[in-house]
Amino acid sequence: GQALDSGMGVAWFDADYDRESTERLHLAGELRRALDQGHLTVAYQPKVELASGRVVGVEALARWPHAERGMIPPTEFIDVAERTGLIRPLTLAITQQALAQADAWRRQGLDLSMSINLSIAVMQDASMARQIVALVRSHETPPERIIVEITESQVMEDVERGSGMLAIFGAAGVSLSVDDFGTGYSSLSQVKNLPVQELKVDRSFVMDMASNRTDQVIVTSVLRLAEELGLRVVAEGIEDETVRRMLEDLGCEQAQGYLFAKPLPASQIPAAVKDIEARPRPDAAAPLPLR
Ligand code: C2E
Ligand code: MG
Ligand code: MG
Ligand code: MG
Question: How far, in Å, are 150, 207, 228, 259 from residue 132 at the CA level?
């Protein structure tokens, strides 16, 4: 009885485990090939200055066009890349494309900051940090216009090493940003000690701000904290005009979201910038559902 039961339990567990790890291995193999063949691309999402309505920069987001499965989102492959070490070639490929693109736009007269997402695995590898700094140096776009984003939860996993690596970028003049802010439970003193210039409020707090009082309180306190610390705040995931107006009213400097544009192929960015900047500035007369 017992032996059979536990035997079956083990067999069950193993079957599930095997299927999952086989899928992962398969995906990792395909990702390795896609990287070797230069198939990974970058989508760019505009970052908008709320007070002026101007596009001040873009964020580079990895995209994997797959023959059978269509576009595989980064939420499905970054994790696999981190577990297999493929995150290093992936990060270099994305960074290289993004920096070349920033230079190309700059030559066309489009001056955009370029934000790049880095995993902690990359930040903790001093040789990776140096390679990325070398890449930045070999491009025309000034380091101050390059922004390295790292998620709050990843920085806080190992604050000492995290801030050590951040310092390498800081010394090279690259700007630093804490991504998905508000989800990582960091204390105020920890944020104060990080050498960063920007906080990106996670979209889970921004999306329902218009109707959710708790989200309003969280975003408001992040904005206060940032002002105290002299940090710029970028709100992620703005999807509607009411939230845009609330954020502008609260003094949030910049935002990204589908309201302005989804992440787009590079070729569509110049037209998207024109479109966003041509939108009429809504007048601030109408009352907001604040407080
Ligand atoms: P993230 O850096 O926080 O990027 C924002 C994500 O929110 C993007 O998803 C973007 O498409 C999405 N988003 C932007 N505005 C809106 C909106 O208004 N509504 C909604 N519902 N979503 C919005 P994406 O491109 O799927 O990327 C997911 C995550 O994958 C990124 O989150 C980032 O953490 C990671 N990632 C992407 N590219 C890279 C990369 O090159 N390296 C690393 N390490 N991570 C990356
Ligand atoms: Mg990001
Ligand atoms: Mg984010
Ligand atoms: Mg996010």
Answer: 14, 33, 31, 32
How far does the chain reach from its first CA to its final CA, in angstroms? 63
The number of the ligand 1 atom at minimal distance from the alpha carbon of 90 is 41
Ligand of minimum distance to the alpha carbon of 45: 1
Indicate whether residue 78 lines ligand 1 (CB < 6 A): yes
Crossing angle for the helix pair 87-107 and 2-36, to the nearest 10 degrees: 30
Taking CA atoms, 28 is separated from 3, 22, 85, 93, 200, in Å, by 36, 10, 10, 16, 30
What confidence tens digit (pLDDT) does each residue in 36-74 have? 999 999 999 999 999 999 999 999 999 999 989 999 999
Cβ within 8 Å of residue 105, ≥6 positions away:
111, 112, 269, 270
Query: What residues form DSSP beta bridges with 6?
Result: none
- The whole model's pTM is what? 0.92
Q: How far apart are the CA of 181 and the centre of ligand 1, in A?
A: 13
